[in-house]
Amino acid sequence: MSTSRSYMSGFGNHHSTEAIKGVLPEGQNSPQKVARGLYAEKFSSTAFTAPREKNARSWFYRIRPSVVQGTFVPLDNTAWLSGPASGPATPNQLRWDPLPVPDKPTDFLDGITTIAVNGDVRAQVGIGIHLYAANKSMQEKYCYNADGELLIVPQLGSLTIYTECGVLHTGPGEICVIPRGLKFRIELSSDEARGYLLENYGEILHLPERGPIGSDGLANERDFLYPHACFEDVEGEFELVAKLGGHLFSAPISHSPLDVVAWHGNSAPYKYDLRLFNTIGSISYDHPDPSIFTVLTSHSADAGVANVDFVVFPPRWLVMENTFRPPWYHRNVMSEYMGLIYGDYDAKTGGGFVPGGSSLHNCMSPHGPDADAFEKASAAPLTPSKLDDTMAFMFESRYLIEPTEFALSTPALQSDYTDCWAGLNKQFQKI
After folding, report:
1. Can you count the helices (H) and strands (E) in the chain?
2. Structural domain boundaries enclosing 406
3. Is residue 425 part of a domain?
4. Residues with Cβ < 8 Å from 292, sequence gap 6 or more?
5. Structure pTM?
């Protein structure tokens, strides 16, 4: 399989691509005989009757249909968990150090550890929040996740993601989204890899409406990149791992399932460079809500209230006058999980929130700048300044984000997190 870095662009567009010229049928999706003895197979990421603007499906023209596989048996795994949660949520503010990369050989799939979940994977509502840490490539192993789409946020090391639709290369500062049910394997481009993984059980991630912003700004459709068709035609003894209903299963397969020679449609994996996000902000006073940084969103049943938002805090200029410029102190009906890809986060200048680390502030749990950030921002001259070399992000959900037993017991959990606000002393002056 080629690892070409040539991509197609355009979020949600209908793409047509073939690795061998003349394979794509013309005028119909499933002719009596497909060129070169291939099989036609439809891949549906939404119900057949979903509204046109939400309908996601692609047609694959492959060497063997997906039904050619062995029988699945349960696979023991206690690290990759799904909602509903088994324990109570907590109102406490939580923060974690990065998890170490394993000492023993561990691939991407085996290196997934669940930090928090919400909703119900069987009802297709909510999310799973995971970390991954790996030191070897997936070898003779493939995977598909029937429970939800996967949003990969690399923090350390680059990944080469082989999929049924082709190949994507992604590294820190970029994201990759793999649709629900699409088969893939992941190779490491360096000795170690670590990052964050969002599993979205709900509505497919899409671009948010811009509203009064207008026709440009935030993430632009043209900057989302899709792979060209690129196939594997190999036989051997391979393993196919499936996730369904919160459980993992394993089946033998005698060939690579990444044997799609051509495809067309609008359901496919894609990547996006977060550094291309066109940040919107105030040029007078105060600053907008963090929703202005939304890259992708998954709606819930209530308009304007997300199953999950993916929000990014990239480099940007701060020019507001007479304004406390870092994020303000806040209590929110939405629950917020934050991670740091690289650099520093402007609301946590006192240390403790480091690349690869994360924090969780659940519904109505107060949070905001640490004492160091408050003191610096309160005294800083309000001349234009730029936040540079920084990339933080947030998974925000309308549902309580419930940490796993591992997350609450790991040594990476910082027992002194709330001390970062201990220096916020009373300053009230009656006269």
Report:
1. 2, 28
2. 279-414
3. no
4. 218, 280, 281
5. 0.97
